Amino acid sequence: MNPQIEKLYQIALKKDRYIIGLMSGTSLDGLDIALCRIKNNGKNTQVQLDKFATMDYEDDFRAKVREVFAKRSIDQQLLTGLNAYIGIIHAGLINQALKNWYISASEIDCIASHGQTVYHAPKSLTKDANWPNSTLQIGDGDHIAVHTGIITLSDFRQKHIASGGEGAPLAAYGDYLLFSHPVENRFLLNIGGISNFTFIPSHQSKMEAYATDLGPGNTMMNQFMKENFNLEMDRDALVAQRGIVNKPLLDQLLSEDFLTLDFPKTTGPELFNLAYLKEAQKNSYTENLAPEDIMATLNCFAAQAMVNGILSQASGLDNVAVYISGGGLHNPLLFTAIKTGLPQFKIESFATLGIDPDAKEAVLFALLANEALAGNKSNVKQIKNSPAVCMGKISFPE
User: Fold this and answer.
1) Which of 92, 274, 309, 390 has a CA-to-CA distance to 147 between 20 and 30 Å?
2) Residue 127 has what pLDDT?
3) Closest to 386 in 3D by CA, of 213, 214, 153
4) Residue 201 confidence (pLDDT)
5) Which among 4, 40, 385, 365 is positioned nearest to 199, based on CA atoms?
6) Is residue 118 part of a domain?
7) Are residues 125 and 239 in the same domain?
8) Quick check: 322 and 357 in contact, CB under 8 A?
């Protein structure tokens, strides 16, 4: 037997596994690295977050990715090179994190890498029936495995699509296993580039759990800040708080059909981007707004899309709680708008549930790797409109 397969077999048999989960979102702020100790699988899963760090990206890295991100026409050589380049960069950041933590690579059972999304194209978004649902995450797992010396699981979204899903969001799989509650009906709201939630009904409910995208989170605000202020984000909402929400523009932004589609659904920056903003400005005769007013309106747009989505799904439910994670949690204007829009619900940071809200997505990919190694697809068969599958492709370091 190949010794790497033997090693993988022994890892699968262990009572607990030491797994590094990686997440690199559309905001391109950095690589989230979560070192998790995971026991058991399925509903018996226990996760302990031992270490967490966000390793910042260099500006040159962000610029290279943005040349291909969410664009239909790109340089194929650049895309091909980035697939290897991102894998090498991510491996280097993992090695640096382990060095900072005084942990040897030999202590780690495996790495779970989400990769870097460069294009998301479910048919519900493209409206093109000639092609199947598709999505592309780059940052090759073989390069990560070879450069770290650690078995790597990657490319999780492809199995979801191959089995009939749309490739996103995947959060429901981990959320369902870890965070269901006897009496609370929970919305686990993640505000990344795109906002999404996992709905987890209480144990008393006959409803099904599911995950869905909602609409824009930080992506349009970040794109606008980069184009107009040469900044990666509106830190602490300092720009948006100086502006005034423009109602005609807000109404136009909220008129997108996607926002009224039934849940679950998926979207991406392929729809919610600066071209979408400029078209909305044109249609609302607001092309001469001050940048601060546009930022205030984009902030309100993101919040309103989230509030409207949650309200539509929470109708008739008691004991509703919303737990927020992701970069948007740190935007005080956005957070306040969500709380104001949902006054009847408990609104808390995801930290209340015992996991660093910034680490949540990386932790969930570590859990997906654990399920691929030691779980069973039947563990997640109760998730609405999502295939019961174990996900992740395996790369050996040698």
Assistant:
1) 390
2) 92
3) 213
4) 93
5) 385
6) yes
7) no
8) no
Angle at CA 380, nearest 5°, toward 379 and 384? 155
10 Å Cβ neighbour count for 192? 20
In the chain, which ranges are E strands?
Answer: 16-24, 30-39, 46-56, 110-121, 134-138, 152-154, 185-191, 194-200, 210-216, 320-325, 346-349, 393-395
Q: How far apart are CA 20 and CA 248, in angstroms?
A: 46
Q: What is the reported pLDDT for 26?
A: 81
How many angstroms separate the CA atoms of 319 and 308, rounded?
A: 18
Same domain, 162 and 175: no
254: domain range? 171-353
**208 and 318 housed in the same domain:** yes
pLDDT of residue 258: 95
Regarding whether 304 and 179 lie in a shared domain, the answer is yes
Give the domain CATH number at 155.
Answer: 3.30.420.40
pLDDT confidence of residue 383: 79
CA-based nearest residue to 209, from 262, 163, 171:
171
Residues 121 and 214 reside in one and the same domain = no
Token pair of 266, please? 């998926």
User: For residue 61, what pLDDT is reported?
Assistant: 96
Q: Dmax of the chain from CA atoms?
A: 68
Q: HSE on the CB side for 208, CA within 13 Å?
A: 13
Pairing mode, if any, of strands 30-39 and 46-56? Answer: antiparallel
**216: closest CA among 267, 149, 163?**
267
CA distance 56 to 116: 14
Q: Are 144 and 246 in the same domain?
A: no
**Cα 271 to Cα 126: distance, rounded to the nearest angstrom:** 9
pLDDT averaged over 10-residue windows placed end to end, the chain, 398 residues: 95 96 91 97 94 96 95 95 98 98 98 96 93 97 98 96 91 88 96 94 90 95 96 96 98 97 92 97 98 98 98 94 95 97 96 94 96 88 81 97
| Nearest CA-CA partner of 270 in 22, 24, 26, 29 | 26
Cβ within 8 Å of residue 92, ≥6 positions away:
147
Residue 168 has a pLDDT of 86
Say how many domains are in the chain.
2
